């Protein structure tokens, strides 16, 4: 397989792909493509989903916009400087969630071994599906065809022997492509890549490696681990060396132990109102509480995350007097952190609420006789809400303070295209 093959739409397809049973499926410019289903007149033009009027950030950019240097998380003002004729569309998270549900359902039609990474990408282990659906390459083609047929959306698929290489392969096949890397071709594929393609190698690490003459994965692989330890630290050196030789033993995980539960919101337009941020914190606290109760967990620590207009990100946390799974208690703790960290008029791009130090419900729940945070009545009320939303939908009951929040979102806020997975906590 030569280097020139890697630029095609369907490349690296070989007679024996039996070793490449891990798929990484990534939707292409997901938010933009969903919006273009209702705006076909904009197809082929540089389009972004994000804030309007020169404010806010780019949440998703079409490949035509990316050709001008426009990228996700870029301020809209900068994007307009790069591409003055940029088309800007507001985001609609409900549409993206609905499309994502269909896509993830298609994956599970093929295999139960599906590990969603975010709203628009997932790993699949198809080792047990080949007798029914054919080779891994045929399965990848089938998935792409079903996704396009049922949603009208394109996706790119990387097929490899490991999760790490499958993800790299899907990125190399974009947009709307398929790339297969059998196990025997893994090292050759990796060693032609720049070192920045490696997981865990950000801009700062890439510069440190470059200062030592390490520019490619080949050079990284042939650097002794003790030397790497002096550059990137002991913890990262061994991992990078293993990945540079294609060694990645991680399996596709359909379930994982919750280390934290979090929800966060990236705003298309910056928010300066403390009251608006407090309403968002209330909604996120309720969502975190709901997920804790569904998982049978309680949290001992609550954290708040804020990202300012400068992209500086801060995190504040507080320990609870007793573990909880109640949204009201989580809100009180998070809103207190908000009061400490934010002042009226400060522009916020992102806000999030996280629950840490999780334990099985009932563990560590003993109460003092006069516990000021005794909230049994509200606990009962929230569980009643859980039952109602399960039967009638999540908007059947909600706090009066959140009325109108959906309408505000539809007018210009929403999650970024690469949000943190709620169960995985903050960056």
UniProtKB/TrEMBL annotation:
Kindly list the cofactors needed. Mg(2+)
Site note Substrate discrimination, residues: 31
* Intracellular or extracellular location(s): Cytoplasm
Q: If you read the UniProt record, what top EC class would you report for this enzyme, in one word?
A: transferase
Do you know which PANTHER family this protein is assigned to?
DNA POLYMERASE KAPPA (PTHR11076:SF33), DNA REPAIR POLYMERASE UMUC / TRANSFERASE FAMILY MEMBER (PTHR11076)
Record domain UmuC: where: 22-202
State the organism named in the record. Gulosibacter molinativorax
* SUPFAM superfamilies linked: DNA/RNA polymerases, Lesion bypass DNA polymerase (Y-family), little finger domain
* InterPro entries attached to this UniProt entry: DNA/RNA_pol_sf, DNA_pol_Y-fam_lit_finger_sf, DNA_pol_Y-fam_little_finger, DNA_polymerase-Y, DNApol_IV, Rev_trsase/Diguanyl_cyclase, UmuC
List the protein's name.
Answer: DNA polymerase IV
Sorted alphabetically, which CDD domains does this protein's record hold? PolY_Pol_IV_kappa
Q: Which UniProt keywords apply?
A: Cytoplasm, DNA damage, DNA repair, DNA replication, DNA-binding, DNA-directed DNA polymerase, Magnesium, Metal-binding, Mutator protein, Nucleotidyltransferase, Transferase
Where do the segments described as Disordered lie? Answer: 396-427
* Co-factor remark: Binds 2 magnesium ions per subunit.
Keyword flag Magnesium = yes
Provide the E.C. number(s) assigned to this enzyme: 2.7.7.7
**Which residues participate directly in catalysis?**
121
Sites binding Mg(2+) sit at 26, 120
For this protein, the parts annotated as crossing the membrane are none
């Amino acid at each position: 397989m030569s280097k020139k093959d890697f630029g095609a739409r369907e490349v690296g397809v070989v007679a024996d792909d039996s070793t490449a049973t891990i798929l990484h499926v990534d939707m292409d410019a997901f938010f933009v493509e969903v919006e273009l289903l209702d705006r076909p007149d904009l197809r082929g033009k540089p389009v972004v989903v994000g804030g309007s009027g020169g404010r806010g950030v780019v949440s998703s950019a079409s490949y035509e916009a990316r050709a001008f240097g426009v990228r996700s998380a870029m301020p809209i003002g900068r994007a307009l400087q790069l591409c003055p004729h940029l088309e800007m569309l507001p985001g609609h998270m409900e549409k993206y969630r609905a499309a994502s549900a269909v896509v993830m359902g298609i994956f599970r039609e093929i295999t139960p071994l599906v590990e969603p990474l975010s709203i628009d990408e997932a790993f699949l282990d198809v080792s047990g599906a080949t007798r029914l659906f054919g080779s891994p390459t045929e399965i990848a083609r089938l998935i792409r065809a079903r996704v396009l047929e049922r949603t009208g959306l394109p996706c790119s698929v990387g097929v490899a022997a490991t999760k790490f290489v499958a993800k790299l392969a899907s990125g190399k096949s974009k947009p709307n492509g398929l790339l297969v890397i059998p196990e025997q071709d893994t090292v050759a594929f990796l060693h032609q890549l720049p070192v920045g393609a490696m997981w865990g190698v950000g801009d700062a690490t890439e510069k440190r490696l470059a200062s030592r003459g390490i520019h490619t994965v080949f050079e990284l692989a042939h650097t002794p681990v003790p030397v790497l330890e002096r550059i990137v630290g002991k913890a990262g050196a061994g991992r990078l060396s293993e990945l540079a030789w294609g060694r990645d033993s991680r399996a596709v995980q359909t379930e994982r132990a919750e280390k934290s539960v979090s929800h966060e919101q990236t705003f298309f337009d910056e928010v300066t109102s403390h009251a608006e941020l407090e309403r968002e914190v209330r909604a996120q606290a309720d969502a975190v509480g709901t997920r804790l109760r569904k998982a049978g967990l309680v949290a001992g620590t609550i954290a708040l995350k804020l990202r300012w207009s400068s992209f500086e990100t801060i995190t504040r946390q507080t320990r609870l007097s007793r573990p909880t799974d109640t949204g009201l208690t989580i809100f009180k703790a998070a809103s207190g952190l908000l009061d400490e960290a934010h002042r009226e008029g400060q522009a916020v791009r992102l806000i999030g609420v996280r629950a840490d130090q999780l334990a099985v419900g009932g563990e560590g729940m003993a109460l003092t006789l006069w516990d000021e945070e005794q909230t049994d009545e509200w606990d009962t009320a929230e569980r009643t809400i859980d039952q109602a939303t399960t039967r009638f939908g999540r908007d059947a009951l909600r706090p009066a303070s959140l009325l109108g929040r959906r309408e505000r979102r539809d007018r210009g806020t929403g999650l970024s295209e690469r949000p943190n997975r709620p169960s995985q906590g903050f960056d």
